[in-house]
Amino acid sequence: LELRLLSGALAELREEDGNFIPSLRVVPHDSLENLLLDGEIQVMPTFKENAPKRAVYRELALCRVVCALPEDSPLAERGSLEVQDIAQSCFLAISRPNASPRAVIDVQNRLIAGRGPGSVIFCESIEAQSAVIAAGFAVSVLAETPGIQMDGVCYVPVAGTEPISYGAAYMPDSRDALLNRFLGLLAEISKRE
């Protein structure tokens, strides 16, 4: 989950229950499913299409597919962008595709198809990708998940794309009162973002 979304839910749980102490792990997205299935973590962020089959999925938000670009870009003023508009940018920032929904990967693939390898900046995380964009080096296509917004970056919808379901997955046998409250807080905070 985006750290700003997560920190809001954790802060509220701390206020409600002084005995609550979170255990957070930062691991590559492709490791999360195994950790969830093995009971090492209770909840993982995911897009509905990528949720583990044995897990229960709870939607937190419907996300737009957007082009993230520096706020001083001439394209930032537009209400939406066509793929051809985005293709005119000098550099494209791409994060790990295994965590991205198909709609984002499809647009990214169309953008990469006509580029040389020197015009694509590969980023290990969404945070690194956002920093590259805010610094003015590149643009990117991504799902506008709750809490993802970063100062210096504009998020303009990509024309012709459908909203994507984003949420949390958990194992059916791990649901308890604390997990219910945590999921409820995430849903509340997602609506505010």
Query: In percent, how helical is the residue content?
Result: 25-40%
Strand and helix order = HHEEEHEHEHEEEH
Radius of gyration: 17 Å
Tell me the total number of β-strands.
Answer: 8
Whole-number mean pLDDT: 88
Q: Terminal Cα separation, in Å? A: 13 Å
User: Strand arrangement, largest sheet?
Assistant: 1-8-2
Low-confidence stretches: none
Structure notes:
By secondary structure, this protein is α+β, with helices and mostly antiparallel strands. Helix content is 34%, strand content 21%. The longest helix is centred in the C-terminal third of the chain and has 16 residues, at 177-192. The chain is elongated, with a radius of gyration of 17 Å. The relative contact order is 0.26. The model has no long low-confidence stretch (mean pLDDT 88).
